[in-house]
Amino acid sequence: MDTIQISVIVPIYKIEAYLPKCIESLLEQSFKNFELILVNDGSPDSCPKICDDYAKKDARIKVIHKENGGLLSARKAGLTAAKAKYVSYVDGDDWVDKYYLDILFKLAEANSSDLVVTGHFREFDSKIETIKPEFTGVFDENEIRSSILPKAIYNGRFCEHEVSTYVWNKLFRRDLLKEVLYDVPNEIIMGEDAAITYAYLALSKKLTISKIPLYYYRQRHDSIVKSIENPKMEYYRLGLLMNFLKVNLSKVLDGKNLDRQIMFYLYSQILVRSGGLVCDHPEKVFFNPFLRAEQNSKIVVYSSGSFGQHILSTNAKTNFFKIVGWIDVDFHKLKVGGNFVKPLSSVVNKEFDFLIIATINPSIYESIKAELGLMGIDASKIVQINTDEQEITKLLTHLGFDDDFNYQLN
Predict the structure, then answer these.
(1) pLDDT number for residue 305
(2) Is 36 exposed, middle or buried (0-12, 13-18, 19+ CB in 10 A)?
(3) What CATH number is attached to the domain comprising 308?
(4) Termini Cα distance of the chain
(5) Please, which residues have CB within 8 angstroms of residue 194's CB and are 6 or more apart in sequence?
(6) How remote is the C-alpha of 101 from its chain's centroid?
(7) In this structure, is residue 17 part of a structural domain?
(8) Number of folded domains that form the chain
(9) How does DSSP classify residue 92?
(10) Run of H or E residues at 112
(11) Which strand (E) or helix (H) includes residue 266?
């Protein structure tokens, strides 16, 4: 048998409906010199049996059964068992192109790269969207430090990453990954990909970014994060992530640049998780980021994704806005706070005061705004998110974040 070149690690928990497709897509790779490490993170369904059944059929498969410890602990267990030069991570509810490993390997070897980044596909409700990095090329250590890292987390437009956070559209060198992964706190359960990607990037001496989309990311209705039950715990975990990034990137970035990148990233995560309207007491809004949209305004929300759902669930508790419509191009049956998603054609200008596009990504915002314009929606009614740095700093201080982005639980 040829030398194993890539260890593919799949963390698995409660995804029995999707797992066979994921495993099949990996076993059908054109590239053969890999091992497949299936990490059953104490899954209570039939996932453990699915893993064992596949392992009996293919010698390249190793199965690890462990107690449930969360995504990071599963990724760490997989890395400990890995033997190859390179590591790729695949989520068990996603699947990959036949040439996924082949192209990742060639990109890494041809350019002697520590990190390879590629495009991906987003699948939602049977619709597939292609997402490609804005810029591509091969970057040496000097370029990574002078031009990539200063914009990696926040590229100057709220809140857009120059390098995507995901670990699954990337190829890592195992020896370098071991220097990063075990230090990431297991309590980080949102943004754990960012902790790995950016800390790893800070150690990389060669980076290759390609536009080729190879990975199919499945956005599931049932995986979208639920509304915040315990904001303090949520902020504490976000603080762990941001402080980890600050500590690991402070060796390679100017302090002012780093603080600004993390500040905007933290703010964006708080908005998405809180539904934009930030409460300091249950049901009492003290920060509204939607410019011009005042309390009791008649609002249409665009997007049934995570941010859109959170806006509706937070508003159901606070009654801050009067929600008169909820629309999405990815139209599907969904109900939050008494509101159903409707198609774009269902709204009329005179029925609402403002329209909120529930995204923190400016490129997506602009493209949706243009589409809504073609549908006759008044552009002056589409609100923007407040990105005033002084106000964001005041918000973070008010919530209890210190200068190192740690959250004071008290």
Answers:
(1) 86
(2) buried
(3) 3.40.50.20
(4) 57
(5) 153, 165, 241, 245, 265
(6) 22
(7) yes
(8) 2
(9) T
(10) none
(11) helix 255-274
**pLDDT confidence of residue 1:** 53
Amino acid 20: pLDDT: 98
Q: What is the residue whose two structure tokens read 């104490």?
A: 42
Model pLDDT for residues 89-107, shown as the tens digit of each residue? 999 999 999 999 999 999 9
Percent helix, strand and coil across the chain, each to the nearest 5: 40, 25, 35
Side chain identity, residue 183 = D
pLDDT-derived band at 115 (thresholds 50, 70, 90) equals very high
| 3-class DSSP assignment, residue 279 | strand
Inter-residue contact 360 to 270 (CB < 8 Å): no
Residue at 57: amino acid letter: K
Segment 351-370 mean pLDDT: 94
Phi/psi-derived region of residue 345, left when phi > 0, alpha when psi is between -120 and 50, beta in every other case: alpha
Evaluate if residue 397 carries a pLDDT over 80.
yes
- What DSSP string describes 296-324? T-EEEEE--SHHHHHHHHHHHHH--SEEE
- 361's CB contacts (< 8 A; 6+ apart) are 159, 160
Whether 195 and 312 share a structural domain: no
Domain with 43 in it: what CATH number?
Answer: 3.90.550.10
- Give the sign of the dihedral formed by CA 195, CA 196, CA 197, CA 200: positive
Say how many residues make up the chain: 410
CB atoms within 10 A of CB 147: 13
Give 222's pLDDT tier (boundaries 50, 70, 90).
low
For 380-406, what is the mean pLDDT?
A: 96
d(CA 258, CA 268): 15
Give dist(CA 158, CA 265) in Å, integer.
Answer: 9
Whether residue 56 is found in the same domain as residue 173? yes
Classify burial at 92, counting beta carbons within 10 Å of its beta carbon; exposed 0-12, middle 13-18, buried 19 or more: buried
- Exposed e or buried b per residue across 282-310, where buried means at least 16 C-beta atoms within 10 angstroms of its C-beta: eeebebbbbeebeeebebbbbbbbbbbbb
Tokens of 127: 């619709």
pLDDT for 224 beyond 60: no
Structural tokens at position 330: 């990815």
* Least confident stretch, 206-210, 359-363, 370-374: 359-363
> Do the domain assignments include residue 148?
yes
User: Whose CA is closest to 153, among 47, 27, 259?
Assistant: 259
pTM higher than 0.90 for the full model?
Answer: yes
As beta bridge partners, residue 407 has 401
